[in-house]
Amino acid sequence: xxxxxxxxxxxxxxxxxxxxxxxxxxxxxxxxxxxxxxxxxxxxxxxxxxxxxxxxxxxxxxxxxxxxxxxxxxxxxxxxxxxxxxxxxxxxxxxxxxxxxxxxxxxxxxxxxxxxxxxxxxxxxxxxxxxxxxxxxxxxxxxxxxxxxxxxxxxxxxxxxxxxxxxxxxxxxxxxxxxxxxxxxxxxxxxxxxxxxxxxxxxxxxxxxxxxxxxxxxxxxxxxxxxxxxxxxxxxxxxxxx
Length: 242
Ligand code: ZN
Prior knowledge:
Number of helices: 8
CATH class: Alpha Beta
Strand order of the largest sheet: 3-2-1-11-12-9
Largest sheet: 6 strands, mixed
CATH architecture: 4-Layer Sandwich
Strand content: 15-25%
Structural class: alpha/beta
Number of strands: 12
CATH superfamily: Metallo-dependent phosphatases
Oligomer: single chain
Helix content: 25-40%
Shape: globular
Bound molecules: zinc ion
């Protein structure tokens, strides 16, 4: 059975519902790579759906920040405001649940992390080839690490000491003698210029991966952000996918 991987939902219930509706027909909704909350107006509802589908989840920087708001010093002003708003709209029970998410999971050939395998608690981005190569040193041949954080889908492969970048738009067959770092894009706040929600579909038997895109009701998600008095920029950027 195919496995569905979600990341960076960011409290966007409209995007999450569209993704679940589409993905459910395709496979088991299986993994969540963090940042379920932050930015969007429905943190509680998104958390509830993740719980309902029993997703195997790792924490993102927004989860850690909402539990420890002192850590928002490194956030931009809009993100910081959204973290405090989100904290005010979650119950103590939900905050305890969020605090229980581990920062990384190793499940045989599958490795889950929100940002980087190097110092995952510091939420590094994989900016350079050196960053990507350093991350590849953390996994073995045959292992696939799914990550999020940048909200930009990408597949890096490492075989016989050589780094390649593969397309996420067509189905890729994964080589057992290679290792992979795969960003499945963002459900709730895409930043690759395509405003549609993104999610990953992994077939463990065929060893294939593809990132799917689905339309969702962007206007309603934006309206909710404005009505909640969250920063307007968090609404406007949804139309741009930036
Ligand atoms: Zn994020």
